[in-house]
Amino acid sequence: MRKLLDHEISLRPIRFRDKAQWDAVRSVNRDWLSPWEATRPNIDNNSPLPSYYGMVMQLNREIKALRSISLGIWLTENKSEVLIGQITLGGIIFGAMRGAHIGYWIDQRYSSRGYTTRAVKLLTKFGFDSLKLHRIEINLRPENEASKKVAIKAGYELEGARNNYLHIAGDWRNHITFVKENPAIK
Length: 186
What we know:
Largest sheet: 8 strands, mixed
Shape: globular
Strand order of the largest sheet: 1-2-3-4-5-6-8-7
């Protein structure tokens, strides 16, 4: 997977050598992210979460199989890359549907600066231009005002609601769906 660029931000796969940055940014943002992050229902209690290295290997397998493309959001500051978030084009389906969904998180210290919106636009462009997807969704909790703003500013339109859609913060949560369609795919 090549790096996707938009001026001082780039999207690229997370590597083994990024562990220190990953651990640091996730630790600082634990409370900030926990209300919005996917959790596992009780049926999965017996399966442990993978280690960082296991996660990176799984993400790389998913990219190679074109099932999911998960990338770090990197900001170039003083000639070095700083991990400020992550974005995923997941659930990629080809054939008659040609669709996927986008999910993301951002370091609180870099929120409200437009970086997430730019990352969504960049990954959407990749999905439409390179993968020739027809439709991409962003599903988010209705009370997540910041995420709503990202979806709207990235050109996504509200389509509807999904009750008990995703397991978040320990329970099944309602979501609203924003959609963008590729005008080049008829």
